[in-house]
From TrEMBL:
Designated name of the protein: Lipase maturation factor family protein
Membrane-topology descriptor: Multi-pass membrane protein
Signal sequence residues: none
Organism, scientific name: Melittangium boletus DSM 14713
Main location: endoplasmic reticulum
Length: 511
């Protein structure tokens, strides 16, 4: 009986200590920074596999064109604020690759806990350098989210060569800023769906289309698409609840907040396996760490020495750095309302000044659900009569090819091809055709297979198809994951102008 009383007294002591004592977050910060370093490593490694094909001198959108722009250079020194990038001082292919290698090395340093604050500062500036000049291929919400997380991490990280959990606790304002970011991320997605007026969300039919029309579907998404209509409707309703009501639990008491974290993490896990959204889901899961406290991580993480008192001056410095970001985040969320309150001029000026830094961003995926799946097929020809398709690495193409799990890798050309099919041909697609006709080896490496054994074709065209997922019976009988119907030409045959006139496109009317 004595050991029972002893056990009960120990449990009661721990319960009182956790309920009365202020929560600690040094261990949470340490684990989060390891996760953030991993996310940076994924982002730089993923971009490195594509950087020359997208932005090199023979890439689709050479980054050098941005820095040679007469419009930007006419701004004088202000051009560095308009497009903040280290590549103003050199945008060669070597510099682009070297930037990736530096990003990977610093990411590993952050994961190892080495000089986290300076390393995070350089990582943020380096990734901003690519995003600022990256145009369409670096315009995804997870790129903006990584920059916002990176900037806040610089302000939160402990100082020192190898500080471990740090000598001092993160301030309440810093913890509040991280939780506010998680709140804006989820609630912004929910509000965008409710305010879009999209009928699929209002009628709870969004999941009837979501798995089939996702930019890069997965095999798990194909099976989810076969679910009964009632289950898909329940899934749609669950998403709306999880993105509008559950985010409020971010600011709830400890145990209720943990329950909300479990629900939001489950949502991210389901999205991860049913849709390829780069490193977005990993970011959202990492943000959830800030809904915990050190006591929640005590069993799986080494104990930390007692923190040092936080000097008053440091609290003031943190407030000056973090409070503006909190104010901008609140104004961004309030601006989504139909009648947002008037904002002070200083806040508007601050927002405009920090906009090129992507310090605070709006979030909201799939506010309007795509109900059809048009897909572009690029084809090359040597005679204008016989056409051979280019095979993308990840984009939907062959009917018998199973959808692939790609995330957390972000294949940026494959993603943008999905967007291009929804409208008229964008300029970057014409630039892609031009590079294929020129035979750029860097661009050719973006494809799984390019016809003509490394030789450039004489003509390139784009064909549009409508894709639909097969059902279980068709899949068992034919082995096909997709059916498709030809809709017509998306781009008529194009060729290069005659030799001596430069590399320009011209329409090919046939021989």
């Amino acid at each position: 009986m004595r050991w029972i009383r002893s056990l009960g007294a120990g449990w009661l002591e721990r319960f009182v200590a956790r309920s009365v004592a202020p929560p600690h977050h040094r261990r949470v910060r340490q684990v989060f920074l390891v996760a953030l370093g991993g996310i940076y490593f994924i982002a730089f490694t993923s971009l490195g596999r594509q950087v020359l094909g997208l932005y090199g001198s023979r890439g689709i959108l050479p980054v050098r064109e941005v820095f040679d722009s007469p419009r930007l250079n006419a701004l004088g020194r202000r051009r560095y604020l308009q497009v903040p990038s280290v590549f103003w001082w050199g945008a060669s292919d070597t510099a682009l690759v070297r930037g990736i290698r530096v990003g990977q090395a610093l990411s590993l340093a952050v994961m190892a806990g080495l000089v986290p604050q300076p390393a995070l500062a350089v990582l943020w500036a380096l990734y901003l350098s690519y995003v600022s000049a990256g145009r369409e291929f670096l315009s995804f919400q997870w790129d903006a989210l990584l920059l916002e997380m990176g900037l806040l991490a610089i302000l939160t990280a402990p100082v020192g060569l190898r500080p471990g959990p740090g000598r001092r606790e993160p301030s309440a304002l810093e913890v509040g800023a991280w939780r506010a970011l998680a709140f804006r991320l989820y609630l912004g997605s929910g509000l965008s769906k409710l305010q879009s007026g999209d009928e699929t969300w209002r009628q709870l039919t969004a999941c009837d289309f979501y798995f089939e029309t996702a930019p890069l579907p997965t095999r798990a998404g194909w099976y989810a698409h076969q679910a009964p209509p009632r289950l898909r409707k329940a899934a749609t309703l669950s998403v709306l609840v999880l993105e509008t009501a559950v985010p409020l639990l971010v600011f709830a008491p400890r145990r209720v907040r943990f329950a909300g974290l479990g629900l939001l993490s489950a949502l991210q896990g389901i999205i991860f396996v049913t849709g390829n959204y780069g490193f977005f889901n990993v970011q959202a899961l990492a943000l959830g760490l800030w809904l915990l406290d050190d006591a929640a991580l005590a069993r799986g993480w080494p104990s930390t020495p007692p923190p040092r008192p936080r000097p008053l001056w440091r609290t003031g410095v943190d407030a000056l750095a973090v409070a503006p970001l909190l104010a901008l985040g609140a104004s961004e969320l309030l601006a989504r309302l139909q009648r947002p309150p008037p904002f002070p001029r200083w806040l508007e000026a601050l927002e405009q000044g920090l906009r090129p830094l992507r310090a605070v961003n709006g979030y909201g995926l799939f506010s309007v659900m795509t109900v059809q799946r048009p897909e572009i097929t690029l084809e090359g020809s040597e005679d204008g009569r016989t056409w051979h398709a280019y095979t993308f690495r990840y984009k939907v193409s062959a009917l018998e090819a199973a959808p692939r799990q790609v995330a957390p890798h972000q294949p940026r050309l494959d993603w943008q091809m999905w967007f291009a099919a929804l409208g008229s041909p964008p300029n970057w697609l014409l630039a892609l055709v031009l590079r294929l006709l020129e035979g750029s080896p860097e661009v050719r490496k973006l494809f799984a297979h390019a016809p003509f054994e490394g030789r450039p074709p004489r003509y390139v065209r784009a064909v549009l198809h409508d894709y639909r997922m097969t059902d279980r019976r068709t899949r068992a009988a034919t082995g096909a994951w997709w059916t498709r119907e030809r809709l017509g030409l998306y781009l008529p045959p194009l060729s290069l102008t005659p030799a001596g006139e430069g590399s320009r496109l011209q329409w090919y009317a046939g021989e």
